[in-house]
Amino acid sequence: MIKTAIVGATGYTGSELVRLLYNHPDVEIQMITSESRKGEPFSAVHPHFEGLVDHVLQPASAVLETELDMVFLALPHGVSMDYVKGYQSAKFNVVDLSGDFRLSSPEVYEAWYKKDHTHPKGFEDAVYGLPELHSAAIEKSSLVANPGCYPTSAILGLAPLIEAGWVDPAHVIVDSKSGITGAGIKAKPTTHYSNVSDNFKAYGLKSHRHTVEIQEQLSGLRPEPLQVQFTPHLLPVDRGILSTIYTTPIREEVSDQALRKLYEDFYADAPFVRLRKTPPTLKDVRSSNFCDIFTTYDERTNRIITLAAIDNLVKGAAGQAMQNMNLQFGLPETRGFVSLPLNP
Ligand SMILES: NC(=O)C1=CN([C@@H]2O[C@H](COP(=O)(O)OP(=O)(O)OC[C@H]3O[C@@H](n4cnc5c(N)ncnc54)[C@H](OP(=O)(O)O)[C@@H]3O)[C@@H](O)[C@H]2O)C=CC1
Ligand SMILES: CC(=O)N[C@@H](CCC(=O)OP(=O)(O)O)C(=O)O
């Protein structure tokens, strides 16, 4: 059994990790931590786990005093980096759900996150945890930087087109919409009920930190300079992301049939990417680890439109983290995933 700790489990991704790991046949949830609620049962914080997961919440400092094989960090960015620094000589594997080690260098991080990085060495060790692109490196890594939710949908939607050189890399437009759990559990004006309910808005224009994450990952697939215009939006739903991606083909022959073949070949060994024949909806992937993709060519405008849908808490966070853990421990990527999409 993989003895596992979840650090920061009073938040949304932490509790989602517990929900998924509970059903994993090779995992024993050894420890769940919280600073703000330590000493209370996990199920007192998340009552839907009552009678299922009643572990007493430990302080995160207990991680280093316990025999563990696996630690998930479900902490805010800027907080995770110090934990990773403290785990340098530990024997367990780590998947960090924050953005602290996803980018190429501390300099790029500091430019986009507008904060200092306290553990630059982590960038040398961390592997970007998108299994569809980096499974071989993830298998060998003890520190995985789990991707952001928006980047997961955008990169999976674009990777086949970029790698094949089918589209103009200088003009890629990613228009994404996310449910409110993407913003974390802490109440803030932007997540206030009356600001979200019956409303819809764009935010982070020109400057959202996921722009550089998407750009860096896609740039690794192709030598030409790549420029992404990324605009996130907040939907009045609790979970789910739908990204609508516009690209301009630079090869002569593009058709729906050719696009389908390109994506099928690229994702031949990707069990969680479903190539859809119709545009996916959020509920088609809700609660599952699927990324559903639909792509089509519009002859009138000479554009390719690609849609990618994920559950931000599953494929966009906790599910992807469990998929990465499976790879780190030499298990099939799909091991332990039992939840089918929840629709309605
Ligand atoms: N929500 C999403 O859809 C996604 C989130 N992520 C990333 O995953 C990480 C966790 O996200 P999420 O679960 O949504 O976050 P939440 O805000 O819901 O939870 C974070 C938890 O971290 C703990 N924590 C420890 N130290 C601090 C601190 N100094 N300030 C605030 N909280 C602290 C808190 O628990 P306690 O105080 O009890 O210890 C809190 O419950 C983040 O880095 C986020 O960016 C990535 C992809 C998608
Ligand atoms: C709806 C919403 O607010 N979403 C978050 C992104 C969530 C996520 O994946 O963020 P990390 O890169 O920090 O892990 C945001 O835009 O900041």
From TrEMBL:
Keywords: Amino-acid biosynthesis, Arginine biosynthesis, Cytoplasm, NADP, Oxidoreductase
Gene3D superfamilies, alphabetized: Dihydrodipicolinate Reductase, domain 2 (3.30.360.10), NAD(P)-binding Rossmann-like Domain (3.40.50.720)
Entry-linked SMART domains: Semialdhyde_dh (SM00859)
One GO CC term on file: cytoplasm
Cellular compartment(s): Cytoplasm
Catalytic activity: N-acetyl-L-glutamate 5-semialdehyde + phosphate + NADP(+) = N-acetyl-L-glutamyl 5-phosphate + NADPH + H(+)
Gene Ontology BP terms: L-arginine biosynthetic process
Catalytic residues of the enzyme: 149
EC main group: oxidoreductase
Annotated Semialdehyde dehydrogenase NAD-binding domain residues: 3-141
Listed pathway(s): Amino-acid biosynthesis; L-arginine biosynthesis; N(2)-acetyl-L-ornithine from L-glutamate: step 3/4
Molecular function GO terms recorded: N-acetyl-gamma-glutamyl-phosphate reductase activity; NAD binding; NADP+ binding
Pfam family, one: Semialdhyde_dhC_1
Domain of life: Bacteria
EC number: 1.2.1.38
UniProt record similarity statement: Belongs to the NAGSA dehydrogenase family. Type 1 subfamily.
The protein's role, per its UniProt record: Catalyzes the NADPH-dependent reduction of N-acetyl-5-glutamyl phosphate to yield N-acetyl-L-glutamate 5-semialdehyde.
HAMAP family per record: ArgC_type1
Protein name as catalogued: N-acetyl-gamma-glutamyl-phosphate reductase
Lineage, top ranks: Bacteria, Pseudomonadati, Bacteroidota, Saprospiria, Saprospirales
